[in-house]
Amino acid sequence: QVQLVESGGGSVQAGGSLRLSCTASGYIEPTPCMGWIRQAPGKELEGVASRGRYGGTNYANSVKGRFTISKDHAKNTLFLQMDSLKPEDTAMYYCVSETSICDDVNGPPRANHWGQGTQVTVSS
């Protein structure tokens, strides 16, 4: 049974940084595509960043150059380092696996497995 557990959200001022973590269980390495999807209040789901089975990464245009996705294989934990945060980054962030965002991070995101979500709030 696949389980994704996130941590690391919080509140920060614009220009600040946060790091999200997602620990996955139920997979044997190499894990399938994993990534992050977010949803701002009143808006649709948006793909943020993905990491493919063999390490390839993709970023949404809105976060490229500011966010970095990485993985600690020993701990089976996915990270999202978010720098130069903007108020428009405010959203609930979900760790996902077996997701469409490895193929098309800027398209409508889909995923078979979702974490519980962690809130990120950026104030101006």
Radius of gyration: 13 Å
Structural class by SSE content: mainly beta
Number of strands: 11
Principal-axis shape equals globular
**Count of DSSP H/I helices:** 0
Q: What is the share of helical residues?
A: under 10%
Reported for the largest beta sheet, the result is:
7 strands, mixed
Q: What is the residue-averaged pLDDT?
A: 95
How much strand?
Answer: over 45%
> What string gives the helices and strands in order?
EEEEEEEEEEE
**What gap, in angstroms, lies between the N and C termini?**
41 Å
Helix and strand arrangement:
Elements: E1 3-7, E2 10-13, E3 18-25, E4 34-39, E5 46-51, E6 57-59, E7 67-72, E8 77-82, E9 91-99, E10 111-114, E11 118-123
Descriptive overview:
The chain is mainly beta and 124 residues long. It contains no helices and 11 strands. The strands form 2 sheets. Strands 2, 4, 5, 6, 9, 10 and 11 form a 7-stranded mixed beta sheet that branches. The radius of gyration is 13 Å and the shape is globular.
Brief account:
The chain has strands spanning 3-7, 10-13, 18-25, 34-39, 46-51, 57-59, 67-72, 77-82, 91-99, 111-114, 118-123. The protein is built from no helices and eleven strands.
Describe the structure using short key phrases.
4-stranded antiparallel β-sheet; 7-stranded mixed β-sheet; 11 strands; 124 residues; 51% strand; mainly beta
